[in-house]
Design brief:
41% helix; 6-stranded parallel beta sheet; alpha/beta
């Protein structure tokens, strides 16, 4: 019996709840929103599909109904508009999160929290600062979606399964994110050597254009927003993957946003590194062998986020 509470029933929150129901690894889904009628409508719509999917109780409720939740997923906040950066959302969404924290942590103090709202690194930091719960239980969705976009793009380059692609997007979930190319590989072959290593094939593979791949990853979200007004399918699947790993008995590595305490010489900021995630939360980080250029990019990302944190007066 696994219970998940989703706070915020906009496009992202509702799609997460729907995906949780379809994937079938939770028994109870509570949907909470400041607009109670919206939450009721979304819950009813999802619940009426359960006879053809998985047996799952889906209902709208209040913070009190979150009691006993194994996972709480936070999607509340103002969505990003076309042409708007994630950091532009910071002040408004931080205030929303600060109002939610005491209510939800009182009801579900032992839950694992997945922060999805943007700017996710700033809101994850605010949650760590204002919520009196263990930091390993606070996980920002971070660059898990960026990493998925990267692997999808590289798999297209070489017509190979995404599961054979091992590459990461790290740092801020935003413009200062970076790809540590020095450790990227396909089936243990360094990414820059993979094309030349393929023998006896009729396939024609292009030269790896790192700038093209980086632009694809960084601009994908904005392009979706420009074309359809919002992103919610891919991020919802990514968040459900985090939730499934939290409920699993086997640890999984993933790029999520957590608080740093001296890793790579960086402290008091939340950003994405490679974390080990499982039933004990995001309990460990994997120290990757960055080169000097990659370390500099990580530091730049941290400084950009710290600048926003300081402007918002969150550090204390």
């Amino acid at each position: 019996m696994n219970k998940v509470t989703v706070i915020g029933t906009g496009s992202v929150g509702s799609t997460i709840a729907y995906t949780l129901m379809v994937q079938g690894f939770v028994s109870d889904i509570v949907m909470i929103d400041i607009n109670g009628e919206k939450a009721l409508g979304e819950a009813l719509d999802i619940r009426q599909g359960t006879p053809f999917s998985n047996s799952c109780s889906v209902y709208a409720g209040s913070y009190e109904d979150a009691k006993g939740s194994d996972i709480v997923i936070l999607t509340s906040g103002i969505p990003r508009k076309p042409g708007q950066s994630r950091l532009d959302l910071a002040a408004t969404n931080v205030n929303i999160v600060k109002q939610i924290i005491p209510e939800i942590t009182k009801a579900a103090p032992d839950a694992k929290y997945i922060i999805v709202s943007n700017p996710v690194d700033i809101l994850t930091y605010a949650f760590c600062k204002y919520a009196d719960i263990p930091e390993q239980n606070i996980i920002g969705s971070g660059t898990i979606l960026d990493t998925a976009r990267l692997r999808a793009r590289l798999s297209e380059y070489y017509s190979v399964s995404q599961q054979n692609v091992h590459a990461y997007v790290l740092g801020e979930h935003g413009d200062s994110s970076f790809i540590p190319w020095s450790i990227a590989n396909i089936s243990n072959v360094p990414i820059e050597e993979y094309r030349a290593s393929i023998l006896h094939t009729d396939g024609i593979y292009p030269e790896l254009n790192k700038a093209d791949v980086e632009e694809y990853v960084k601009k994908s979200g904005a392009r979706v927003i420009q074309r359809k007004g919002a992103t919610f399918y891919a991020v919802s699947i990514s968040v459900c993957h985090i939730a499934k790993c939290l409920l699993s008995g086997i640890d999984t590595t993933m790029t999520v946003s957590t608080m740093l305490h001296g890793e790579y010489g960086i402290s008091d900021v939340c950003l994405s590194l490679l974390n080990i995630v499982g039933e004990n939360g995001a309990h460990s980080k994997i120290m990757l062998p960055f080169n000097d250029e990659e370390r500099a990019k990580l530091n730049l990302s941290a400084e950009k986020l710290k600048d926003t944190i300081n402007k918002l007066g969150l550090s204390k």
